[in-house]
Write a structure and sequence with these properties.
91 residues; alpha+beta; four-stranded antiparallel β-sheet; Alpha-Beta Plaits; 27% helix; globular
Length: 91
């Protein structure tokens, strides 16, 4: 499984609709509007690295209103939920 975080800068006119469009893309697990230099963060979870490339360059970056993206591929994934479940085994 490949996990990635995609930062997205958008045109002002796309701010109201782009979040929903991102969330509707297969492979986008979560999408957030955020403050700061970037307008949206998309959390990507796909089976193959090639799927990530197609998703970012072929789908996300092609959405109307997307100015630019910056993708960070995760080496390891940590979750408070997973850690709590691990340490509560046998309790």
């Amino acid at each position: 499984m490949t996990h990635a975080i995609v930062l997205i800068q958008a045109e002002r006119s796309a701010l109201q609709t782009l979040g929903g469009e991102l969330a509707d893309i297969d492979g986008v697990a979560e999408a957030y509007s955020v403050t700061g230099e970037w307008d949206f963060v998309a959390i990507i979870r796909v089976r193959e690295h090639d799927q990530l490339a197609r998703l970012v360059t072929g789908m996300i970056s092609q959405l109307e209103g997307v100015i630019r993206t910056h993708t960070m591929v995760a080496f390891e994934a940590y979750s408070r939920h997973d850690l709590e479940a691990l340490f509560s085994i046998g309790q």
